[in-house]
Structures are given as C-alpha cells and as structure tokens.
C-alpha cells in the first residue's frame, strides 16, 4: 500500500505550500483536495446553479468530471476538460466553495476520486484538505493538523493575494472555517492520532522540515 501523509487544517494555515514542499522533498505525489471542491464550485457557477440550493447542487454535481494532476511542482485541476487552476482562486469561487462542500453527494463523489488518486499513486502521496486524516485516508501513516494564529493566517493570505484589508480577510477566513467546522458531513476536524503543528512563529521551510522529520524519523 502506498505511503499517505494527510495534512489537514483551517483555511490559510499554509497547508498548500507546506504540502507541496513536503511532497517535493520526499519525491511524493501531491493531491490538493481543496482545489477539487473549488473546481466543482467553478463548474456549478458556470452552469448557473444556486450554490445554496443543496438539491440543485447534488443533481448538477454528478455531471461534472474532475481531473487532478498530482505533480507537486505543477499541480493542476480540470473541470469537464478545462484547466481551471487559475479561476478557482478567484473571489467568486472562494465565496461559494464552503456551501458546496457541505452537500453530502458532492463529498461522496469527491472522496471516491480522492481515494482513487491515492490508490493510483505508487510512490507515496501527500494529501491536503479538511477531512483527510478523519475520512478520506484514516489509515494514513502520518497525519498532520496544521494550525496558525488567525491574525497571522489573515496577514499571510492578504499578502499572497495583494489584499490590503487584513481584518476583512480574517473575517472571511473565520466565516469559511465556521461553515467547514460546523457542517454535518465530514467537518473540518483534527484526527485523534494527528500531530498538531503550529506554524504561527515558524518559516515555511521550518514547517516542512518538521513534517519531513516526522515522516522519516
Ligand atoms: O483548501 P482550500 O481553501 O482551497 O479549500 C476550499 C474549500 O473546500 C474549504 O473551505 C472547504 O469548504 C472545502 N474543502 C473540504 N474538504 C476538503 C478540502 C476542502 O470541505 N478535504
């Protein structure tokens, strides 16, 4: 069975940069499950689906075909054959993704794809998301729950996106975390056997180093 490293945590805690760095260091594949929820959201918005109408989301989502590229140097995501790696980072998708991710039919469809990607990766894989250690890969050999102080997370994300209002960013992240943590279907949660890494006062390289050391003690 392939080696799986699960990296979960709230929005803006640095999961993507960290997960890609860990995958590169170990020569592992990388799966960004958040990008899959975003790509699904992008495809639903394209179809004019009301993302707050769970029944409509459930019905339309089954027609969407997602394809993930798992190279940590250049991860890609396509919806219905269109590369949506860039548009899924826009405000429209970011505002709509958490409601879409509450819909159980969407989750079961994407979890099945995620498990298939894990099964196909022969040389080890780093999988990042919200429910990887708890639901998608409960047998992962290493589970990390990556956290950071909310103000630090907002500052970092605002800098990344060139947004000036860090307080508005903190509120937006908190809103997304609240929906992700309180939904009924596989909420954001720390697995009992996860190692908590707090990146607030660490550089990206230090966080990566810590996780690589845990993976290869
Ligand atoms: O990680 P990222 O911020 O790109 O994820 C976008 C959204 O996708 C999250 O806010 C969450 O609503 C959803 N998500 C999820 N389960 C995952 C990964 C992401 O519900 N495993």
Brief overview, please?
With 217 residues, the chain is of the alpha/beta class. The protein has helices at 15-26, 33-46, 54-61, 91-101, 104-120, 132-136, 150-161, 166-182, 204-215; strands at 4-8, 29-32, 66-69, 76-79, 82-83, 125-129, 142-147, 195-198. Helices cover 50% and strands 16% of the residues.
Q: Which tags fit this structure?
A:
217 residues; Rossmann fold; 2 domains; five-stranded parallel sheet; three-stranded antiparallel sheet; 9 helices; binds cytidine-5'-monophosphate
Q: What report would you give on this structure?
A:
This protein has 2 domains: 1-28 and 124-216, 3-Layer(aba) Sandwich (Rossmann fold); 34-120, P-loop containing nucleotide triphosphate hydrolases (Rossmann fold), CATH 3.40.50. Helix 1 (15-26) packs across helix 9 (204-215) and helix 7 crosses helix 8 (166-182). It has helices at 15-26, 33-46, 54-61, 91-101, 104-120, 132-136, 150-161, 166-182, 204-215; strands spanning 4-8, 29-32, 66-69, 76-79, 82-83, 125-129, 142-147, 195-198. The chain is globular, with a radius of gyration of 16 Å. The protein has 9 helices and 8 strands. It is of the alpha/beta class and 217 residues long. A 5-stranded parallel β-sheet has the order 2-6-1-7-8, sandwiched between helices. Strands 3-4-5 form a 3-stranded antiparallel β-sheet, with helices on one face. The chain is 50% helix and 16% strand. Bound molecules: cytidine-5'-monophosphate. Residues 11, 33-34, 37-38, 97-98, 101, 129-131, 176, 180 line the site of cytidine-5'-monophosphate.
